[in-house]
Amino acid sequence: MPRTSPAAEATRYDFDRLHGFVQTALVAAGATPSDARTAGEVLVSTDARGVTSHGVRTLPHHLETLRRGGTRSPAQLTVVRESAVTAVIDGGGGLGLVVADHAMRLAISKARAHGVGIVLVRGSNHFGAAGHYALMAAQARLIGLASSNASPIMTIAGARTKSISNAPFAYAVPSPSGPIHLDIAMSASAGMKVRRAAAAGEPIPAGWILDHTGAATTDPAEYARGGSLLPMSGHKGSGLAVLTELLAGALSGAGMLSDIVPWLIHTDTQTNAGHVLVALDPACFLDPDVFAARVQHLIDELHAQEPAAGVERILLPGELENHAEAEARTRGIPLDGDVVALLRDLAATEGLADELDAARIPHHS
Questions:
Q1: Which positions ≥6 away from 224 have C-beta within 8 Å?
Q2: 107, 196, 274, 282 — which has fewest CB within 10 A?
Q3: Which pLDDT belongs to residue 363?
Q4: What's the average model confidence in pLDDT over 280-291?
Q5: Would you give the distance in Å from CA 251 to the centre of its chain?
């Protein structure tokens, strides 16, 4: 998952008040207060961690899918198969942000009772940043894994056109120093980075995308013209994307590959995306205090490595995001100018300008 550093001129917003604004907008679009609260927490927490591509920037699309029928609230979530440590949930076409939250909570509950919880989801929609759900497990002192399929935007290795999703995957492991966590997709670059380069009129590196004919290109505008993302590390990223499709799609009973509807384009149609949420209790494998000490030893040894030229210090996965979230919860969430403009337009349309203004933190704070 791409993480972008906020520009110096970014505007900061109070976490709780921005959350309140998002909730109000979702309720106005048809979400129940409970669904709006959960979805708002996912989006605002994602921005707090600096993952701006999947935060409140996506709010207008969620509002449109609610109004046009692409998502439902409340959804009738149904457990269709279950054992002590596993479950399959039909999301009933609900907000993916809410469905995945419910699924991970069930996985956590099973892990607490039996050591492991594995929950597959079908009948869902776009679930935002996979890292949010993995971190839910880490915050419960468990190990978390999360993945999802989606509509095809990436090629399979050797193909000329898009045929599979870029398979977001995240893990989170609790540690005494804060969770170690990673949230990535299997493409060489995130689609958002390609779109931003196109908007700026800047070329992109070779190996990021193919154009609509299947030819290599460094012109980011070709992505929007029917091009496709390339998998990272060729067959390696491609192979991991197939695994996600097998678990989140084939095994869950969700849509697969071209059967999944692009949520940004067909906002009146449910996508039938599938998710995988896993929680593991470290205590089933090792004494919790011993595990914590070993994780800290791993952190300390890796931090002690000599940095390469131009590198200030060694960072483990999630350290930047942990710092960003701690700062955002005290000083406010920094949002770049394009996101602020998007929210202001939305607030004006929804009659929520005063609520959005109240969430803004003055520059002198």
A1: 195, 198
A2: 196
A3: 78
A4: 97
A5: 21
Is the Cβ–Cβ distance between 216 and 227 less than 8 Å?
no
Q: Are strands 86-90 and 78-82 parallel, antiparallel or unpaired?
A: antiparallel
CA distances from 64 to 15, 21, 239, 261 (A): 24, 16, 34, 15
DSSP secondary structure string for all residues of 287-355: -HHHHHHHHHHHHHHHHTSPPPTT--S---TTHHHHHHHHHHHHH-EEE-HHHHHHHHHHHHHHT-HHH
Which one-letter amino acid corresponds to residue 178? G
pLDDT at residue 6 tops 60: no
HSE, side-chain direction, 13 A CA sphere, residue 123: 15
| Cβ proximity of 314 and 300 under 8 Å | no
CATH entry 3.40.225.10 includes domain 76-187+231-320: no
Residue found under tokens 């929804």? 350
Separation CA 96–CA 148 (nearest Å): 10
Give the C-alpha distances (Å, rounded to integers) separating 56 from 47, 147, 185: 7, 20, 19
Domain boundaries, the chain: 7-68+332-365, 76-187+231-320
Q: Look at residue 196 in the predicted model and tell me its pLDDT.
A: 80
Q: Is the predicted pLDDT of residue 238 greater than 90, yes or no?
A: yes
* Rounded Cα gap, residues 116 and 256, in angstroms: 26
Query: Amino acid identity, residue 272?
Result: N
The single-letter code of the amino acid at 64 is: E
First to last CA, the chain: 30
Contact partners, residue 268, CB within 8 Å, separation at least 6: 65, 68, 69, 70
Q: Identify the CATH assignment for 7-68+332-365 out of 3.40.50.920, 1.10.1530.10, 1.10.730.10, 3.40.50.300.
A: 1.10.1530.10
- How is the beta sheet containing 209-210 ordered, strand by strand? 216-217, 209-210, 228-229
Report residue 103: phi and psi, to 5°: -65, -40
Are 216 and 222 in contact by the 8 Å Cβ rule? The answer is no
Q: What is the pTM of this model?
A: 0.94
β-strands 86-90, 116-124: how paired? parallel
DSSP 8-state code for residue 230:
P
Binned at pLDDT 50, 70 and 90, residue 199 comes out as confident
